[in-house]
Write a structure and sequence with these properties.
Order of helices and strands: EEEEEHH
Structural class: alpha+beta
Number of helices: 2
Distance between the termini: 59 Å
Mean pLDDT: 89
Number of strands: 5
Strand order of the largest sheet: 4-3-2-1-5
Radius of gyration: 18 Å
Shape: elongated
Length: 93
């Protein structure tokens, strides 16, 4: 991992139903951590080297596969249940 490397972050937040793939550029590398920045928003993210291969990848396809796998296993959220109930009631009328 070196400054300037392009990496991909599979941002997986199942409790709120968010699954994002972010392209980041490494800006700082420490002993056991690194920071990367998203080009569009300029938002910085801090990671441990332990995250590499789990949510951080140098290959976009690999990151996308992990993201799709996590999204397929996502839990049903309360908002999904409410939406399903509303649709069912609308169909009845």
């Amino acid at each position: 991992m070196e400054k300037g490397d392009l990496i991909y972050y599979a941002q997986i937040m199942p409790t709120i139903g968010e699954y994002n793939l972010l392209g980041l550029k490494v800006r700082t590398v420490g002993e056991d951590w690194f920071a990367a920045i998203e080009a569009k928003t300029k938002r910085a993210y801090l990671f441990n080297f332990e995250d590499i291969g789990v949510t951080i990848f140098d290959n976009r396809v690999e990151a996308l596969d992990i993201l799709k796998e996590a999204e397929a296993k996502k839990p049903k959220l309360k908002t999904d249940e409410i939406e399903d109930e509303l649709c069912k009631r609308l169909d009845e009328n």
